């Protein structure tokens, strides 16, 4: 069978292809000369499969799409407090080349605007790293996100650095406020190198996929940053990633995203997929025209919107039965599905509202596929309370979805692989 | 067994209780006199169970928490285009009493700031509704969200309207820009009535629960607004709900939320739970001090953060086996879990990468608990393509998780309740 | 002889007449309907002669030109401190309908923007005056500036008040900040009445002439406000009178001025002349197009620019001679011209550098036409010091340009009407 | 006799001396170390006499006081249009280190803020001048204003340039907008050298005196810039010289002024005097605390306020008599004082209202001390019209206050030195 996904990608590219509105960035000669007709899309699943269509292996400079990844690296290298002290996380409501800093402190409003991104670059690598070491760290880090060795496009770098007056203006202001400690020219050089890294649309999909996959590269399986860092990074992308159209993006597309002036655009759907598109013509906000259109279609077609509530599944409690011999009955509660807070609450409520009369209580997890941290805590607390109420409690967990159960003080539980124990008299 | 959830709520209230920082709103006499020590929290699950602790049945005025609900009502009553024409959806980055409108058009930046909320109030009810009819519509609508008849606190209304100069200033500016068509005094009176509706913390939890439950009130089971309206409303809450601290809230708490000057605070976790807290002392942003603390704890304890990627569950493909008689084998693919895009993709890929050699292909949904729209489309497309490849395709779906399967042109599928068909020769 | 001044005015009107650029104010129906071709200019000398040309007796509403006069009345009625507490004097750099208030206090930046003008109106009349009494006070005051009874154009008032949403927005904000104490609707009504007063171009010239004449109406001879109030008013007109083009106006025209949306424009050259023009078409700043052109020509033709340094006149010391009998010589210093600081300094320096050897010193003021306060003090101090040095000092002051001379402790002076005293032996 | 002026200066310094509020600029180490107690004042009359008191010969860096002078030099070197194209003249209403540029063009709002001053520095010298040549031009120019050779304080320069991040930020932004064409680092170096020029309080008084004296250095008698350039420069000082307190300064002090961060402060009273003070402690606006106090006292004591209307002098027409033989009478009009527009108008009006019956008309200028351009034109026009009316017209002008009289087409005038002509039959 031929997978319908490449067909879908091809179809959707064809649908947006006629739109020639917008223009390539004109302030960087190297970008202005880019072929404006190139068009690509790629998806990377959290288990590492990449789908793509169009010019998905054509290379272009990463530009601002490097910002969330460098932010993630800075958080990983220096910790949250050190980074938040220098760069805030508030939407700026301003265009991408404005000086959006807090009035008193000079702290950039967020890491997705240039002022914040220059400050963020300077927070990568260990404390005391030299500028060269920081650039090396960022390229290593971006490569780890992409799952292959990335390189700087020196001609793009030189084309940009020659006209980097706005960024130098920002860097000098940051230096004046002691937000960065480096020489401003050096800081801008490092940041511009970061922006000049060459990527393909497929690379970007993998990088976004790493964010969707809790910081573990789905291709290589290697952890790049922690889940906490990913959560912070995706949050900032959600509120600040699309410049002054953040609210419009969140309502229409609903996926944390970031665009770059070379025409790239990424989005990450936590736990599911990383997405990337490429089309160099930009709208007046600096976002890729056809890229934004593609994402709008992806959301409509793939149900990616963060605020899209999935229809309610079946109850977490599949059945409640009495098993075992008449004189030694067992109250068996069979759970099912993925247990998160809402499901665990339902289970706990069942024990409360209709407490089992039997002294033995078995909870079957055979049809449970995952339990998150809060559901685990709730189930174990229920076990503990059942114990304290005088019950003997059993977990039927053949696939070990709830490993090492410890119900805490006063609780006790016995793990079984099947129900046979109860069948024998 | 006693449920651990009320205990949890009680514990967490006790933890935040000593914090007496902040102050009640002083610009509305009726609010300034409120008992600043009151404290409550409540949860409402999507199947309608309400947990609460503290002063959860004490009544207070809803204030700005009415904004997202009135926005939802306006979207429902007038449609997205009519509402977006008058009120944008961009973060303002400003304090709650500023005039945050687009410079040329006077369009308020979003419906969560006062200017936008006054404009939104004027968009409730059918086109041509009188001011009184609009107020009636809003109270009816808020009541539908709460699941019981709500009333205006006339003394709060009169206390506020006497000092409503800022709102009148905003309303006159909106009138000057033709954003509203009413007399500004009348517009402010209507909006102030909306803010004076009395609610309890439990009411607010149910209202938030209605948002978490795709617009259907979990208590009454009655639909209040559509899923599309809920998606838009939650998106705007996510980027604009917490005034100028939207980015901080999104990173730390990660739940769409809205606060009110009387001390209420709500959050909605799509598909899972509505949450409300009440504590009248406010921080300098106008958000409840202890309420914000409670939400931070809920996020940490309950894994509610929108960007929290749940750990990957087991593969969507539980097993792949050959069954049936040797001369008429059936390739049986057993799926499991909740099927969304990522899971469906995995299934489709399996068919592509390892196409079954058998002419009969069965897909078992016995251990599948839910399928969202995109996964449904993908599974059916796979069925269609398998048919076109020459296979006979069967869905084993005893619980009808995929009702009315139609694989489209050229596709064909037979639905079975169990595997017995294949067993008989 | 026919005076060349009316001919000049006629010529200059003819020169600007062909310019039909700009447009009448469209947001007030009554103004939009005004005949856009009307054109007038008038001058009022400080001794009360009025020259005019064009439609100089056509009546139109005073609009914003009332602002400096109402400001002067408020300063006169309440004192500087009370007015400055509520309205600052800083340029706003903003368009005329913006809310330009200090962020913390809500104090309008200056009395020439609408927010400041509404606040200023509320500061006219005695403390405790009713709104009606304030309106009466302002009309009386404007009439005193004009030298005739002015009336409100009720149709203009009603046309404006019906659409006064922007001003009501401002008034409500001012009320919220306690800058005004009145009901905002009443405040706007009063201010709008002030703006609806009918004037002719000749009236405006007399009103400006009153400012040029230290607050004394040059026609009626009646004092309207004090010289200190005039100084403050002209200073504010100089920095804030021409909206966001204040700097351009100061460099090009160099005269304190104020424009109105009905097409009027006034300027006052301290000590010399009041000027008014009328032409309803406005530029994008809201200033009369041909009016601004006329003022630019007046400055070029009449040398009115405040920073225009007149060419140095002859020395203040016309001659120094020895007169009188040989045994009783008198050192006679003949001064000339208008004595201000620079001239008086020159005189004092002469006494210091070339002290007279004669015991008798006579200072002739026969050719001195005026002495300002500082020059008077300096001359008298010189007299005192000459006395202390042992001289007998005489002032020859036939026209009493230095009345009641009192040289202070240790000083002594004898006033003579001519030099004959010294001629007799 | 000892002049009272030095005594006055000494007294007024003593009066402000106890005020130790404010602080020296802390962001430039070399300035932070300055002796904060130093205090000086100096006056320079338009005929070149310098009075001073306190530490008036102590040297300090000129800092921002260089701005108006560099602006004058740029206007002189490049012309008004070229300078206005790059630097506007509008008040900024902002603090001195803000980026106050027009949003679209990047044009700095005025030459008194740093952005504008950096741009202005780059406009000094001839088009195509090298950076070094521009610095040389500025030092030469400042020296010409001061009347002696000024030097750069290299230690101040190096102290400032090391921390000039804000100015470099501004210069890079200016470069990004093509307001300057130089390398931003070089532009800041040149501007910082300009600010590091050493001056004394007496130097500053002479520099201000040059502005008061129509651009001619009162000490050396050498013209530095034209009267038109001075008018423009003083106008900009009036509206933009005192940062965000421009309106307050204009109302209270009323003299075009400029302050520097080293503690200097200058003011120029056109046609009369240049003033300078020195006291290093600054208020929060960056203006010298005691310097501002001194200027307030100077205004009160010396009547310097630009809007201070001098009391009306006597009529410009001293007398009107009939002289000469009965059969050949002469109508003699004796004028007096300084003739500017208002006086000339009075004279012209006399001819119009009471036309002489005699065929011979004599106008005596014996008691007239100066005639400005407009008065000259008006008197000559009156002469022309009297001629056309059939009169023979005579000017009695023994001191040649109206040289080369040419009444224009149809006019004729005879100049006499005295009245004797008429006495002889």
CATH architectural label of the largest domain in chain A: 3-Layer(aba) Sandwich
| Main interface by residue count | C-D, 85 and 85 residues
Strand order of the largest sheet of chain A: 2-1-7-6-5
Distance between the termini of chain A: 51 Å
Low-confidence parts of chain A, pLDDT < 50 over ≥5 residues?
Answer: none
* Mean pLDDT over the full residue set of chain A: 91
What overall form of chain A do the CA principal axes indicate?
A: elongated
Please provide the ordered H/E string of secondary-structure elements of chain A: HHEEEHHHHHHHEHHHEEEHEEHEHEEH
Beta-strand level of the residues of chain A, as a percent range?
Answer: 15-25%
Structural class of chain A: alpha/beta
Oligomer: homotetramer
Pfam families (chains A, B, C, D): Glutaminase (PF04960)
Binding site for substrate (chains A, B, C, D): 64, 114, 160, 167, 191, 243, 261
EC number (chains A, B, C, D): 3.5.1.2
Catalytic activity (chains A, B, C, D): L-glutamine + H2O = L-glutamate + NH4(+)
What does this structure look like?
The structure is a homotetramer of 425-residue chains. With 425 residues, the first copy, chain A, is α/β, with parallel strands linked by helices. The first copy, chain A, folds into 2 domains: 4-302, Beta-lactamase, CATH 3.40.710; 317-423, 2-Layer Sandwich (Transcription Regulator spoIIAA). Chain A has 16 helices and 12 strands. The first copy, chain A, has helices at residues 4-16, 29-32, 66-78, 80-86, 114-121, 131-146, 154-161, 165-176, 184-195, 201-212, 227-240, 246-252, 289-302, 341-353, 373-388, 420-423; strands spanning 40-45, 50-54, 59-61, 198-200, 257-259, 264-269, 273-278, 317-323, 330-339, 360-371, 392-396, 414-416. In chain A, the strands form 3 sheets. Chain A has a 5-stranded antiparallel sheet with strand order 2-1-7-6-5. The two termini of chain A are 51 Å apart. The model of chain A has no long low-confidence stretch (mean pLDDT 91). At the C-D interface, helix 11, helix 12, strand 9, helix 14 and strand 10 of C face helix 11, helix 12, strand 9, helix 14 and strand 10 of D.
């Amino acid at each position: 069978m031929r997978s319908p996904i490449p067909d879908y990608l091809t179809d959707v590219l064809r649908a947006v292809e006629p739109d020639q509105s917008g223009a390539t960035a004109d302030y960087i000669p190297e970008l202005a000369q880019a072929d404006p007709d190139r068009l690509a899309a790629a998806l990377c699943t959290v288990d590492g499969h990449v789908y793509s269509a169009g010019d998905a292996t054509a290379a272009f400079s990463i530009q601002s799409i490097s910002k969330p990844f460098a932010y993630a690296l800075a958080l990983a290298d220096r910790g949250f407090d050190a980074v938040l002290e220098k760069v805030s996380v508030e939407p700026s409501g301003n265009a991408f080349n404005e000086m959006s800093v807090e009035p008193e402190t000079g702290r950039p409003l967020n890491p997705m605007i240039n002022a914040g991104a220059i400050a963020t670059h300077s927070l990568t690598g260990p404390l005391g790293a030299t500028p060269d070491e920081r650039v090396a760290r960022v390229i290593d880090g971006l490569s780890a996100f992409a799952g292959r060795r990335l390189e700087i496009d020196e001609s793009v770098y030189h084309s940009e650095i020659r006209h980097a007056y706005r960024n130098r203006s920002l860097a000098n202001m940051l230096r004046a406020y002691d937000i960065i400690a480096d020489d401003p020219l050096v800081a801008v050089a490092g940041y511009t190198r970061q922006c000049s890294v060459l990527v393909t649309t497929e690379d970007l999909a993998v990088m976004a996929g790493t964010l969707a996959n809790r910081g573990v590269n789905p291709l290589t399986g290697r952890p790049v940053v922690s889940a906490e860092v990913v959560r912070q990074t995706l949050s900032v992308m959600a509120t600040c990633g699309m410049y002054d159209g953040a609210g419009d993006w969140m309502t229409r597309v609903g996926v944390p995203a970031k665009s770059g002036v070379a025409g790239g655009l990424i989005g990450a759907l936590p736990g599911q997929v990383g997405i990337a598109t490429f089309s160099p013509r930009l709208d007046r906000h600096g976002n890729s025209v056809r890229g934004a259109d593609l994402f709008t279609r992806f959301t409509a077609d793939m149900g990616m919107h963060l605020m899209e509530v999935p229809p309610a599944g079946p109850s977490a409690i599949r059945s409640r039965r009495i098993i075992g011999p008449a004189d030694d009955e067992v109250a068996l509660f069979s759970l099912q599905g993925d247990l998160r807070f809402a499901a665990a609450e339902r289970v706990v409520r069942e024990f409360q509202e209709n407490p089992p009369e039997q002294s033995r209580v078995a909870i079957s997890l055979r049809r449970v596929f995952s339990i998150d941290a809060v559901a685990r805590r709730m189930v174990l607390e229920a076990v503990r309370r059942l114990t304290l109420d005088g019950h003997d409690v059993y977990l039927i967990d053949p696939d070990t979805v709830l490993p090492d159960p410890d119900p805490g003080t006063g609780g006790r539980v016995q793990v079984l692989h099947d129900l046979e124990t109860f069948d024998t008299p």
